[in-house]
């Protein structure tokens, strides 16, 4: 690797660690600060933190690769995600911010559900926490696999070295600075990602020279390359667009809404977040399409379409700029891992340790346990990531569907339907998760994405069971949820 490229990547790592140290000095005095930054994030940081923790390496590798192979029809997943993110900001963000604070200042999603339904048995918190811990251990492992593969293919290091470097840097700044470190690093990482996704297709277009028509080149390759509907089916479009349904149930994304300093800041954060997402998605689509045309013109074979972002950068960019580009891929990977580790560590701390082990634990003890929990989850993820041949995209798709079906309908109706009961919430979580698992095991995912039947079944279970069961007697300190917008 060129020394200038390595220098740029080293600077990126140093920035992440520096932010971790800053956050450690500023916001780790108690569990509220460590786990939610004291609910004090501004709209810009909240917006980019939600976006960067969402997209992961899929934005830089998977989406451009899919467009490279099949053309514009593969952008339905991007369209679905954008619409889902918009709905998440409108329906979930303001309500979740208000209600998690009103219901005993809930710091985690399982704690909110337990408080929302006055669940003295704690079964909702236990089930929700188990889903988070199990799914996020696998989800985090998929991110580490992506990091290991990046170091192996782009940097020339071994897969194991890539695993250790990725995990060590992420764990260091998350353990040090908690939620504030994760959010600030996500802000920086989101900015790097967007700049890289805008700059690379512009550089590639300029390399074609005057008179060249990328659209004509793509149509010569395949007449359907620039068609949203060409070469695909209605079920395939539904499956791709249905990814947007998953947003309502992703703990590492919606927890950002809980930390913004005020409900009044959410419209601003929504505008920033959706603008960032729209620009980044269009950039990723452009990389895939322009990359396909570029490699066709230059008659250069590309063995792995998902490396189009990397290889274009290697061919067209100065080594220092290439280092920035590769840092953008690392940013996409690390921002998601860090958010997942923090949410899992938070759940282990608040929903297991404080609830069942040490109810009277002091704030210093809770923060320490939170840090140890993050290290433990990272260690499990490292063990799961030892196989470099694991399918990252498949793991991500399954985990996204699992969270979306198990939590999405529960979160939506808990925030918006006062008649919902504890039994309905539990039925929805279990039904959504079971349907997703059965759908995957039966091999039906190739026909219809498992999130669609899982989400629909969970929604139906919540409504039916809630109408058949009684709401618990409202606690004296529990506020009403009607009217919260």
Automatic annotation (TrEMBL):
Keyword Cell membrane: yes
UniProt cross-references to InterPro entries, sorted A to Z: Na/Glc_symporter_sf, Na/Pro_symporter, Na/solute_symporter, Na/solute_symporter_CS, Sodium:Solute_Symporter
Any one annotated GO CC term: plasma membrane
Reactions mediated catalytically: L-proline(in) + Na(+)(in) = L-proline(out) + Na(+)(out)
A GO molecular function held by the record: sodium ion binding
Record membrane topology: Multi-pass membrane protein
Protein's GO biological process: proline transport
Gene3D superfamilies: Sodium/glucose cotransporter (1.20.1730.10)
UniProt entry keywords in alphabetical sequence: Amino-acid transport, Cell inner membrane, Cell membrane, Ion transport, Membrane, Sodium, Sodium transport, Symport, Transmembrane, Transmembrane helix, Transport
Transmembrane segments: 6-24, 75-93, 123-142, 162-182, 187-206, 226-248, 269-295, 315-343, 364-385, 397-417, 424-442, 448-468
Subcellular location: Cell inner membrane; Cell membrane
Pfam families: SSF
NCBIfam families for this protein: Na_Pro_sym (TIGR02121), sss (TIGR00813)
Function: Catalyzes the sodium-dependent uptake of extracellular L-proline.
Similarity field: Belongs to the sodium:solute symporter (SSF) (TC 2.A.21) family.
Protein name in the entry: Sodium/proline symporter
Organism: Sphingopyxis panaciterrulae
């Amino acid at each position: 690797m060129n020394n200038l490229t390595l220098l740029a990547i080293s600077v990126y790592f140093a920035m992440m660690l520096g932010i971790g140290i800053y956050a450690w000095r500023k916001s780790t005095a108690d569990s509220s600060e460590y786990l939610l930054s004291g609910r004090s994030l501004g709209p810009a940081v909240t917006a980019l933190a939600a976006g960067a923790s969402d997209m992961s390496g899929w934005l830089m590798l998977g989406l451009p690769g899919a467009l490279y192979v099949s053309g514009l029809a593969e952008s339905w997943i991007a369209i679905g995600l954008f619409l889902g993110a918009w709905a998440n900001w409108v329906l979930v963000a303001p309500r979740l911010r208000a209600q998690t604070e009103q219901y005993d200042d809930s710091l985690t999603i399982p704690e909110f559900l337990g408080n929302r339904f006055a669940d003295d048995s704690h079964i909702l918190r236990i089930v929700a926490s188990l889903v988070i811990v199990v799914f996020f251990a696998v989800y985090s492992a998929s991110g580490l696999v992506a990091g290991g593969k990046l170091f192996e293919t782009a940097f020339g290091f071994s897969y194991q070295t890539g695993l250790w470097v990725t995990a060590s840097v992420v764990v260091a700044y998350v353990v040090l600075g908690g939620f504030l470190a994760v959010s600030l690093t996500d802000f920086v990482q989101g900015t790097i990602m967007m700049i890289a996704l805008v700059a690379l297709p512009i550089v590639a277009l300029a390399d074609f020279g005057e008179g060249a028509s990328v659209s004509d080149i793509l149509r010569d390759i395949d007449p359907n390359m620039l068609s949203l509907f060409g070469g695909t089916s209605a079920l395939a479009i539904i499956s791709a667009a249905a990814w947007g349904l998953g947003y309502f149930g992703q703990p590492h994304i919606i927890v950002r809404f809980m930390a913004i300093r005020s409900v009044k800041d959410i419209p601003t954060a929504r505008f920033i977040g959706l603008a960032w997402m729209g620009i980044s998605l269009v950039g990723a689509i452009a990389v895939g399409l322009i990359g396909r045309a570029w490699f066709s013109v230059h008659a250069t074979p590309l063995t792995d379409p998902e490396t189009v972002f990397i290889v274009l950068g290697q061919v067209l960019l100065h080594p220092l700029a290439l280092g920035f580009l590769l840092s953008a891929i690392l940013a996409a990977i690390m921002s998601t891992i860090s958010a997942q580790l923090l949410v899992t560590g938070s759940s282990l701390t608040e929903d297991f340790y404080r609830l069942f082990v040490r109810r009277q634990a002091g704030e210093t003890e809770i923060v320490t346990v939170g840090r140890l929990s993050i290290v433990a989850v990272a260690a499990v993820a490292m063990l799961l990531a030892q196989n470099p041949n694991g399918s990252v995209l498949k793991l991500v798709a399954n985990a996204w569907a699992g969270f979306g079906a198990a939590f999405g309908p529960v979160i939506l109706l808990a925030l918006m339907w006062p008649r919902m009961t504890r039994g309905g919430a539990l039925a929805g979580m279990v039904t959504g998760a079971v349907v997703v698992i059965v759908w995957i095991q039966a091999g039906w995912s190739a026909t219809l994405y498992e999130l669609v039947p899982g989400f629909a079944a969970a929604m139906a279970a919540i409504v039916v069971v809630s109408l058949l069961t009684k709401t618990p007697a409202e606690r004296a300190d529990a506020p009403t949820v009607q009217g919260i917008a």
